[in-house]
Each structure stands twice: as C-alpha cells, then as structure tokens.
Amino acid sequence: MAYRVLGRAGPPQPRRARRLLFAFTLSLSCTYLCYSLLCCCDDLGQSRLLGAPRCLRGPSAGGQKLLQKSRPCDLPGPTPSEPSAPGAPAAAVPAPRLSGSNHSGSPKLGTKRLPQALIVGVKKGGTRAVLEFIRVHPDVRALGTEPHFFDRNYGRGLDWYRSLMPRTLESQITLEKTPSYFVTQEAPRRIFNMSRDTKLIVVVRNPVTRAISDYTQTLSKKPDIPTFEGLSFRNRTLGVVDVSWNAIRIGMYVLHLESWLRYFPLAQIHFVSGERLITDPAGEMGRVQDFLGIKRFITDKHFYFNKTKGFPCLKKTESSLLPRCLGKSKGRTHVQIDPEVIDQLREFYRPYNIKFYETVGQDFRWE
C-alpha cells in the first residue's frame, strides 16, 4: 500500500494555470459587459434605468471588441448639491441655455438682476434724454418704463422689481429711471437696503425753468388749473412763495439731497446739468460714462441738433433706420410767464442754489 506524503504542494502545471487565468478574465469581462449594458447612455447622456448620467470608462482589453459598438456619453461635472470629493480635480459645469429674444430681436443672453445704477431725478430735468442716450451704450441695459418701485410699489418686493429688469451679462450694467425718487423721503433708505453700492444719477436744471416746464406739462393734461403765478405764491405782493406746491418744492434741490447724503457718499452721486445736456450732450454723457465705469462709447458722432425741438437727437445707427428723438411731450413750448414773476422766483431759489453748489462742488450758473 502506497502512502501519500503530506507536504507542500508543488506549482500547478502550466496548462492548468492558463485555463484558470482564461476563466477569470472571461468572467470579469462578462461582468463588466453586463454592468455597461445596464448603464448605457441614451441620446441625452442619461441612464434609462438608473436615471442618472453614466458613461463607459475605458473597458479592459478582453471586453474591448464587445463594447466598441456601445455609445459613450459625456462625463458630467459635479453639481452644486453634489460637490466633488476632496482632492479630486474640478470638472467644468456646462453653462445654462437661455432662449427668447432681447430688445433687438436677437437671442436672450444673461440674467435679470437688480439695477446697479439708478437715475433718481429730477422730474423735467432731462432724465428721459439721459436714459435714451445711455441706452446706446453696449455695456448698459436699461428699463424703458418708470417702475416707481421705491416710492409707489415697494410693497411688491424685490423679486417683483427684479422681474421687470432686462437681461444682462456679467459685464453689463442694469439701469432704471424714476425721477420722483429724488423727492421721496423713504427712497434713499430703501435703495441703500437693496445695495449700498448703487450708483445714483441726478439730472438737475435751473429750478425756475424746471417749474415752468412742470406746469406746462400739467396744463396740457388739466387745462382748468390755476395760473402759474397763482400756484407759485401765497402772497405775490409780499413775495411769499408757496413751497407746498410740488413744482416749486422739487427745485429746492439741496433740501432733498440731505436725505440722500445720510445713506450715500457724495462720490456715489453724479449730477448731470440739464442745460449742458442740450448744448454739449457728448460732454455730459462722457462724464456719465466715466461715473458708471464704462468706456466712452457715446461721442459727438451719435448726436445732431434738432432745431424744431430745440435739443439734440440721436443719429441713425446700424440698428435703427431713422434718427431717434424724444417724444412729442419733450421740447414743447413753455407757457409765457410774467418776467417779474421769474425774477421773484430766482431770488427765492438763490440761497438754495448757492448751498447746493457748495454741497456738490459744482457751479451750475443758474443766476
């Protein structure tokens, strides 16, 4: 009887080793193939079965031929809710697609943002002209209508306000105009609460001329209102001006400015001369562009003087077939006012004007 000696088994025969290696490789390849087929991507790069993006990542040599017909999908980057693991390389996140059209009819680009700059005043000072002129600039997108958010519609909330804004790119400025903000007591605090970095533009004009223009506009809508002289004075003989009349009170610029300076430094407020806007529109708009921190794109080549209206208009551009002037309500002939009344009002405004010049460091030469 032969006894088997217990001990260390010798190495397997070469043929047997090759068979074991082949079986192991085949098993691994089949497993990988099954997993890949379960997770193959559809046309949108998402798994039909698992509901999440899956891709074929470098199959082994044994399964390469079987998998070569399988379609790989793009590798997705990490989403904001699923950050990549520490130490892993960051993957690029595709930019969102936007559809629709902007004011020029081209595809919409950008995002609706709260305005970084506001034209806050003053009524009948030339705010519409500044708005229309600055909209020519490619780095500015402005709301065409007056939303009156910070005076009449504040209760609607910032989300409502933002929804009104045009879409802008990161490199563009969002701007809106409502000239009644300047004389609204609550407006400075509300704007500050939105953003303390908001840039403010105030278009001012000789307060006497501004008051007459204001009255002329009101008269066109309400022909039965009292005369300009009757509304301007409590006692004309004594020269007592009625400061409760809004057309007079708006022109007391320095009083309204005090409210703004409680929240914003003077460097954040730019004052445009309504008079120079007519005689030198390119110069005034150049200073506006400097204040906004954008290049001087709007120059003399954009303007021509309309003798009928008495103020500058925009020339024809590549995107416009006709020159663009302000509407019929702009440049209307003012009502005739007794020169003595004008002199009395000039004397009334003189101390307010001087204080305004000193505060803003600019002489508008209204005397």
TrEMBL record:
Which residue stretches belong to region Disordered? 61-110
User: In which organism is this protein found?
Assistant: Ceratotherium simum simum
Q: Would you tell me the protein name for this molecule?
A: Sulfotransferase
Q: Does the keyword Disulfide bond apply?
A: no
Domain of life of the organism in this record?
Eukaryota
- Compositionally biased intervals (Low complexity): 84-96
Ranges that cross the membrane = 20-38
Keywords per UniProt: Glycoprotein, Membrane, Transferase, Transmembrane, Transmembrane helix
Q: Which parts of the chain are coiled coil?
A: none
Gene3D superfamilies named in the record: P-loop containing nucleotide triphosphate hydrolases
The answer to whether the entry has keyword Acyltransferase is no
For this protein, the record's PANTHER family field holds: HEPARAN SULFATE GLUCOSAMINE 3-O-SULFOTRANSFERASE 2, HEPARAN SULFATE SULFOTRANSFERASE
Sulfotransferase domain location is 115-350
- InterPro entries listed in its UniProt record: NST/OST (IPR037359), P-loop_NTPase (IPR027417), Sulfotransferase_dom (IPR000863)
Could you say which residues form the signal peptide?
A: none
What family does the database annotate? Belongs to the sulfotransferase 1 family.
- PROSITE patterns the record matches: PROKAR_LIPOPROTEIN
- SUPFAM superfamilies for this protein: P-loop containing nucleoside triphosphate hydrolases (SSF52540)
